[in-house]
Amino acid sequence: MTPSAVANQSQARRAVSSGGARLAQSALERRCHGGLLWAMAAIVCLLAGCVTEYSGGTQRTSDPDATLDKRVALARQYIGVGDWENAKRNLELAQDIDSDNAEVAEAFALVYQSTGEFELAELQFQAALKADPKLARARNNYAAFLYSRGRYVEAEREFQRVTEDTLYSGRPMAFVNLGLCRIQLGDRAGAESALTRALAMDRGNPVALLEMGFLRLEAGDPGEANRYHGSYRTVSPQQSPRGLLLGLLIADATGDQDALGSYELALRNLYPDSSEYSMWKERQSR
């Protein structure tokens, strides 16, 4: 994710029992890893703004820790603008100061993941967690990396550990990502549990609201699915293709032809090239 799960991204799948079930199943089985977009959103929580170079010569001698922190911060700025070479250069300078620093290893992992060097990225994530097993942000980003590689069992385990850190500021989104992992693994009850926890901490989380809507529709409860969809529309007036798809599925399940026509028109006009609209057209042609 997205996101959504990791994030966005790809920032999940499902099925609806009875009525318009086959469309939901097809849509959710084929959906690109929408959760990745949301899971990956945590990865790009990087510093923004202009990049200013830092010489660091004198300060490196007088205060190595401060120099290391500035190099890592500068590297994160470069990562934020996609300048991988300058990011790596600053991280190498930071690594010269402390070769076992968890922050340095995690930043290296983000660079390697972004440049498609996945084996190196994984090694760096593991090095970061070996150096500091309590670094929740690194574990969350590692979990998102595993999700992006389709390794849902491992990702679920890591996201579960992230949610156990009650002081981690990203804990609500970690519960969302945990729920997305469980959806991929076919654990609907576990997914609902995780998403419910996420909503208890962040009532307006659009990903959790949308995914709960799909889960409730799958469970044969279109009324509750519609309630979640209504809350989702409140926090996301410009609905995503998946949001419109959920509206279509609810309208189809309840026989609301006016809503169905409205959602179909919106999906066709706003997202004509989306996989959701392709799925809907395929269903209509049957």
General description of the model:
- The chain has 16 helices and no strands.
- The protein has 286 residues and is mostly helical.
- It has a domain of 83 residues: Alpha Horseshoe (Serine Threonine Protein Phosphatase 5, Tetratricopeptide repeat).
- α4 runs antiparallel to α5, α6 packs antiparallel against α7 and α9 runs antiparallel to α10.
- The N terminus is likely disordered.
Q: Do you know the CATH architecture of the domain at 50-132?
A: Alpha Horseshoe
Q: How widely separated are the two ends? A: 32 Å
Question: What is the count of β-strands?
Answer: 0
Q: What is the SS-derived class?
A: mainly alpha
Q: Regarding quaternary structure, how should these chains be classified?
A: single chain
The CATH topology assignment of the domain at 50-132 is Serine Threonine Protein Phosphatase 5, Tetratricopeptide repeat
Percent of residues in beta strands: under 5%
In short:
With 286 residues, the chain is an all-alpha fold. The protein has a domain at 50-132: Tetratricopeptide repeat domain (Serine Threonine Protein Phosphatase 5, Tetratricopeptide repeat, Alpha Horseshoe). The protein has helices at 21-30, 36-41, 57-62, 64-80, 84-97, 102-114, 118-131, 136-148, 152-163, 171-184, 188-201, 206-218, 222-235, 241-254, 257-270, 275-284.
